[in-house]
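#structure-requests
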Amino acid sequence: MAMGPFQTNHNVVAGEVVWLADDVRTVAAPNAGPMTFTGTQTYILGQGTVALIDPGPADARHLRAIRDGVKGDVIEAVLVTHSHADHSPLAAAFDAPVYGFGSHDAARAEIMGGLGDVGGGEGIDPAFSPDLLVADGETISGNGWQVEAIHTPGHLSNHLCFASGGRVFSGDHVMGWASTLISPPDGDLGAYMRSLEKMRARPDRIYYPGHGGPVEAPHDLIDWLLDHRRTREGQIVGQLEGGAMTVAQITAAIYHDVDPRLHGAAGRNVLAHLIDLFERKIVTADRFDAGGRYELV
């Protein structure tokens, strides 16, 4: 969405290696689109022996580009921020242990299981199964590289960020080109806000996201994202002051200036807000599905 402090002039060529630092290079997958921007960014951390971060979609062209980008270096580990189909499927293509938090629902909030049919599940990689489970705060290291895993549920319950020397490989948690999709039941707005606050408290100076270019002022962007979500909540509550509404009605009212191609994703964000408001006993609903009607308590 072209609003806020976002940088939408990220010019990359799929398959080309771009060096971002002496020990960080990236290769964009050939999957550019409305939800992936210029494509999924696969990162290579280290030199000689390296960690591969978010290997990307199951695409033979991208696999060849990664192997060319490594240029004879040995891949010691594959680190996966989360198990969406544009980030994790190629993990199995490399002869290296795969690190991740767990399956896509590994830390799903209990409330999500009691809501009924809320839809969702977009883009999940159901086959993802890490060789090694990574806990929040755990250190993963190899020959010449090291990262700290930070559990950041919200976009997906198994989402991790990886910090290395003041830099964060932020996956889809914080991106410089757009706000993050939160689609229940795997997306959880309450968890997302807590994860943003968690990252805001850290001193890291630059983020390398799963889509788009580096975020060079991450604290400023996190402040904006927190304020943006709180503003959206206020807009939703404001709409409901006029009476019960469906997700589609709320979405049309508050996202009238957004590309219609993104209204489906926007509606998922609205639902995430409504579930969070329901959990906080601000909103009630007759049912949680596409036709459900929501109103203030």
